[in-house]
C-alpha cells in the first residue's frame, strides 16, 4: 500500500486509464497548463500532451457538448468542471443529450463519458458555490452518480467510471483533495453500485457518502465511549443505489440514520427512507431519522455556515433519538 492525497488518487486513475486506452482524454478549465484548479491533473499535460489534456474556455455548455459528441463517435472523454455549480450552465447537454442518447437512438449510440469535479460546500464560498447536486443528477435515468469519500475509493471508482459505457457523474469535494489515505500499489477497480461497510456495528445503521461521512465517524467514536455501536455504510455510488446493503444492515441493527449534505426536500436520504419503510418496515424499532442541511441557500458567515451544515453533534442526537436515549 502507498499513501496518496485524494487529488493524487484522481490523477493516478485518469493517467493509468489514459495509458491503457488512447481514446480517453481530459478536458476542462485549467486542467492542462495550470495542472487543474485543484491540481488533480498535475503532470498530465507533460505526459499526454495538448491533444489529450485540453484547456477549455469558460463555457461549460460548449465543451460539454463537444465532449458528448466525441463520446458518441468512439472516444471516452473525461470532463472536469471546476465545480458542479458551474455544471448548471451545461446541464442541458448532460441531461438531454448524454443521459438520453442511448434510448433516443434505439441503441445506435452510447455515451461513455465522465463528468467530474467538486460538489457541495467548501467553506465561505457563498450560496451559488455551495450546492450539492447528487440527487438532481440521480433523478435522471441514464446517468450514474458516484461520490467517493477517500483516496482508495476515489481511484478505484474513477477507473470503473472511465471504463463504463454510459455517462457517469463523478462528484468530489474541494475540502477532500488534500486528504490522505492508503491506496493499493497495483491495478484495481471498485465496481459502481456497491456500498461499503466502513465500520461494523450492532445498535444503529448510519448511511452517508462523500465528505460529510467524516461527521459520522466522529459521532461513532463518541458514541462508542457510551457503549453504543454504530454500523457506518458509505454508499460510494448514489445511482445505482445499493439498497440491499442498507436493508441487510437495518435487519441487524433495527435502526437507521441517514446523513447527507443536501437540502432536505426530495434528496437521496428521502429515497432511502422510502425504500426501507417499504422493504424493511417490520425490522425497524424506531422511525428513520435523516440529517440534512438547513432548507436555505448556504450562508457566507462562518457562524451561520456552521449552523447550516450537519455535524457530528447532529448525528449523535439522531442516534440517541432512534435509541430512545
Give me the count of strands: 14
Major sheet: arrangement of strands = 3-2-4-5-7-6-12
Helix residue percentage: 25-40%
Tally of helical runs: 12
Question: Which structural category do the helix and sheet elements fall into?
Answer: alpha/beta
Shape: globular
Please report which band the strand proportion falls in: under 5%, 5-15%, 15-25%, 25-35%, 35-45% or over 45%: 15-25%
Please state the average pLDDT score.
Answer: 97
Low-confidence stretches: none
Give the terminus-to-terminus CA distance.
41 Å
What string, H for helix and E for strand, traces the elements in order? Answer: EHEHEHEHHEHEHEEEEHEEHEHEHH
Which radius of gyration do the C-alpha atoms yield? 20 Å
Largest sheet: 7 strands, mixed
Structural features, described:
It is a single chain. With 325 residues, the protein is of the alpha/beta class. The chain has twelve helices and 14 strands. It has helices at 6-20, 44-48, 60-72, 91-98, 101-104, 134-138, 151-163, 213-225, 243-253, 268-279, 302-308, 312-322, and strands at 2-5, 24-28, 53-55, 76-80, 114-118, 144-146, 168-172, 180-183, 196-199, 204-208, 230-234, 237-239, 256-259, 289-291. A seven-stranded mixed beta sheet has the order 3-2-4-5-7-6-12, with helices on both faces. Helix 2 links the parallel strand 2 (24-28) and strand 3 (53-55). Helix 9 (243-253) crosses helix 10 (268-279). It is globular, with a radius of gyration of 20 Å. The N and C termini lie far apart (41 Å).
